[in-house]
Design goal:
- The strands form 2 sheets. The protein has a 7-stranded parallel sheet, sandwiched between helices. It has a two-stranded parallel ribbon with strand order 7-8.
- Helix 1 crosses helix 8.
- It has a single domain, classed as NAD(P)-binding Rossmann-like Domain (Rossmann fold, 3-Layer(aba) Sandwich), CATH 3.40.50.720.
- By secondary structure, it is an alpha/beta fold.
- It is built from 8 helices and 9 strands.
- The protein binds nicotinamide-adenine-dinucleotide.
- Nicotinamide-adenine-dinucleotide (NAD) binds next to helix 1 and helix 6.
Length: about 280
């Protein structure tokens, strides 16, 4: 059986850690040729070497447009095409109450989480338009679908990613380019281990904490769950899907963590409003 990304070329930003690294491994296992990008150069280089042939690394800060352009051009230089662009790099960014959020922290956060994705979509689109093919995947979050789940700048930026995804999808569809987003809930990655336990290496421990509080009993979300979503969006299997924000959230955005109605017992329908209400 042929591999699901056989011969395809992907760029993945934020590929030195967490979801980006899990996606790089998953894509590689499915026959994809890779350019990995990250601000953590040493870690990224080591990881690219570990993945083996046809995997290159470019140091890149996604908040700098020329860095992102260089990464995309590396894919053309090495492989002559670009099939999949995964704009994944991110940070938690500015935290705290809105009235105490410093403007420079707000700008630094949105520079990475919004502008970084814009640069990725822009430079991938320039190449993919000429090819008349491609799949762009943007990293949003459940915080891009609902409020109250993350800090203000992060929530705003991840909503913007959903907006950019639908907008770019509407334009790029006519060029045979698909644009989709992924919106995970808390997954057991270094970012979340750092946020919950102040230790980015404690991913196993944070996985246990997430599993204990998960809407799916005993099951935490992992980087691999998101990598699998990216694999589907990057592959031809999702060939008629564009503009989608695909949640990997155990139903959190549909209310699975809200206090549940009684689904256990049959209660006859009340046909009239009465003193006990509806
Ligand atoms: N883990 C989750 O629960 C979760 C949930 C929803 C969304 N996300 C999003 O998924 C993406 C990956 O998160 P993760 O959990 O794997 O985190 P992570 O910290 O493990 O990995 C993020 C990677 O992005 C890189 N990065 C950060 N800023 C960068 C920059 N300016 N330029 C280039 N690279 C940069 C980091 O060096 C790191 O390698 C982020 O966009 C995050 O917001 C994560």
């Amino acid at each position: 059986m042929s591999k699901r990304l056989e011969g395809k070329v992907a760029v993945i930003t934020g590929a030195a850690s967490g979801i980006g690294a899990a996606t790089a491994q998953r894509f590689k296992d499915e026959g994809c040729l890779l350019v990995l990008a990250d601000i953590q150069s040493e870690l990224g280089l080591d990881f690219a070497k570990q993945l083996g042939d046809h995997v290159y690394f470019e140091a890149c800060d996604v908040s700098i447009e020329t860095d992102v352009e260089r990464v995309v051009n590396r894919a053309i230089l090495e492989f002559g095409k670009l099939d999949i662009m995964f704009n994944n790099a991110g940070i938690v960014g500015a935290k705290g109450p809105i009235d105490l959020t410093p403007a420079d922290e707000w700008r630094a956060t949105t520079d990475i989480l919004i502008n970084g994705v814009f640069y990725g979509v822009k430079h991938a689109a320039a190449i993919m338009k000429k090819q008349r093919s491609g799949s762009i995947i943007n990293m949003s979050s459940v915080a891009g679908v609902m409020g109250g789940l993350a800090p203000h700048a992060y929530t705003t930026a991840k909503h913007a990613v959903v907006g950019l995804t639908t907008s770019a999808s509407a334009e790029l569809c006519t060029h045979n380019i698909r644009v989709n987003a992924i919106a995970p809930f808390s997954m057991a990655t270094p970012m979340v281990a750092d946020a919950h336990l102040k230790n980015h290496l404690a991913t196993d421990e944070v996985e246990k904490t997430l599993a204990a509080n998960s809407p799916l009993p005993g099951r935490a979300g992992t980087a691999l769950d998101v990598a699998n979503a990216a694999l589907w969006l990057g592959s031809d299997e999702s060939g008629y899907t564009s503009g989608l924000t695909l949640t990997t959230d155990a139903g959190v955005t549909t209310g699975s963590m809200v206090r549940r109605p009684n689904y256990e017992d049959y209660v006859p329908m009340q046909r009239e409003a009465g003193s006990q209400g509806l």
